Amino acid sequence: MNRVRTELRSRSPIWWVAAFAGVAIFALDLVGHLTQPNIQDTGVWIFLDTKLAALIAAGLWIWGWRVRLIGLLLFGWAIAVLAGDLMNVYPDSRSVATFGLLVYWTGANIFFLHMAFAYPTGRLGRHWPTRLLLIGFVYVGSVITVIPWLLFQDGRGCADCRPRATSYFFVGHSVSWLDDWNLFWVYWSWVALAPVFVWLIWRRFRMTSKGGRRTVWPFLTAFSLAFADLVIWSIDGGFGSGGSLDPYLTYGDISTAWLVVLGAVSGVLVTRRARGVVGNLVVELGRAAPGGVRDALARAIGDPTLELALWVPQKHGWVDEEGNEVELPTGDDRTVTLVGEKLAAIIHDPVLLDQPSLLEAAGSAARFALENERLQVELRAQLAELRESRARIVWAGDEERRRLERDLHDGAQQRLLGLGMALQLLEPHLDKDAGPLLEETETELQQALAELRELARGIHPAVLTDQGLAAALKTLAQRSPVPVELYACSGRLPAPVETAAYFVVSEALTNIVKYARAEHAWVNVTRNNGLVRIDVRDDGIGGANPTAGSGLSGLADRIGALDGQLEIESPAGAGTHVAAEIPCAR
Amino acid sequence: MRTVIADDTALLRQGLARLLAEAGIDVCGEAGDGESLLQLVEREQPDVAIVDIRMPPTHSDEGLVAAAVIRTRFPHVGVLVLSQYVEPAYALRLVSDQQGGCGYLLKDRVTNAAELVDALERVAAGELVVDRELVDLLLTQRRDPDPLGDLTEREREVLALMAEGFADRAIAERLWIATNTVETHVRHILHKLALPCDDAKNRRVQAVLIHLSG
Fold first, then answer.
1. Would you list the DSSP string of A105-118?
2. Which of A296, A374, A500, A583 is the most core-located residue (most Cβ within 10 A)?
3. What percent of chain A has pLDDT above 70?
């Protein structure tokens, strides 16, 4: 209900005036026929008026439905034909004669042929022979013709014509060439130009894309039939039996006009469906996930081969939705339609160029989505760069730790061991009094060695590199002052993942020992669907604050660098749960 | 007793060689990596090879790899691995399927000649030797339920020495008790831990270690 009201309200005042005028003129014609049944065969005029009603209605409908030009042309054609009929119904009215001569002799041809060549958009193409024929011949010819009709026509000059009212511009039946001109204009020219029209229409159909043909064929077929009817009528009238075919041609004319109406309406319906597709596109774009704009566009435009390129200013290049750089094609087999000023490019099948309005509409509809998509691509690229650099930093840090651990063993530890052995060798040469001192020194040395070992272990446990995560975690659990129930899947993982997982457990266990006052801790490391999951729980007091400078916040960064996630749940009184998930290739 | 030493640090090799020479042990060769160690062992056929766990080229577990090769190719040669790490995983890897003499000692032990010589002699005698620090770690780890909860103080002491690889008599000497008493303790311990009574002492050490490290 709302939709109807909106559509009615959106029509322009001109439309309303035209609609009113159209209905009024039609009513006038109808009244004429009803009051003077003897003017024309009843079957004929009913058939004719029905056709006119249909033409007016279709014209107004199409016009109102925003395919303005075609609607206007169809409506204009209807009015012109109606004007011609009015002259038959009211042969004595000068007003009708003026209006009828003016409108019929200009409008009937201009509107009809313009419509034929400009269907379905209403705009003439750039093809110059078409323009020449239409503007040079039809427009100019019609205007030139209408002048003598207005000035000189009084109904004489044709064999079966009755005398009729003249126009207000009538100056007298004084020119001898009028009839010849009429003969030429009305009959010969059509016959002569018929092949040209046929060729132009055929060309127009050939040049239309497959998608476009679906829209234009009913109309062009109807038009061709109507035109054929016109040509036969011209031949018959100009050279042949002098109107003996008239009854058939009249029915033919009316029938083909019906077909034109149906063709125009069906074409508009197809276009309307296309626009409906654009409407759906808007809805779909609203729902499209990042990276889904291409698919939505491909569906809307009906080109499954459609590709999308987005302009990334930082890269000075085009990229696809995944962020891979792409080149815009330059060949004939693909066509590029730009959206916005270097925002995006739709790379599509060239036949779609025949539907520029669809492409344009789809492009406009998708514009914000494309803008968004481009930002997403840029953002993703930056994120990927950031992530890579973060991973590199973490990896460099790990390498540094490994090197440090090795240096401690190979350097300081060896020196201390050398010292210890030297003390052993020294012992027999010392006084007995030096015994306690030596023992003290040795104890100190043992202490130093033990501390050094712990330090190296804290920096990087060698067992993690050599034996893997499960073995390293086992030692960690064995060393923990809080009993730990450990389950760790066996099998090696990528080194950065193992290191991150190890330090998560290590840090979590350290925190448990320090703060949690827990009786038990549980460590679970599982691997599923390319994801390593680490859970560390305890039954302590909870209430841990992960942001308060604990080592865990540093670990979140480390895990983030591997595209993983760290979550800490620590409700007061209900223990702490540290959960980490790290993706790892299988 | 004839030994060879493999360690990539010359300082340590030389110090160790001097220390062992002072203690009357014949050091008949030194090597800097696993490959040359194998050649040396093949040539010298020593009683025991003293092997650093970490050697070139990868500086990870070459010592353990070399130990495994020696134990297969020269079963009469004992291997004493000196390690920087108190890691049950390494020790288990070394002793888990060894039948002959071999040992896993912390490198710190080179600062105690008597202890080192004792370990060498036990390895030469075909015993398993496990560093006491490692056994300490295994015995002190908190578990719940604690499988060692039922053991008496004395039984724990006996278990620790068992895990270090000592035979009943050596345990008896160390604890100043009779060998019979040790045997009784051992029987109780094995029963309480539900371990099989195996007379082969190396297998007993392995079982105890595996049990302790969970």
1. HHHHHHHHHHHHHH
2. A500
3. 86
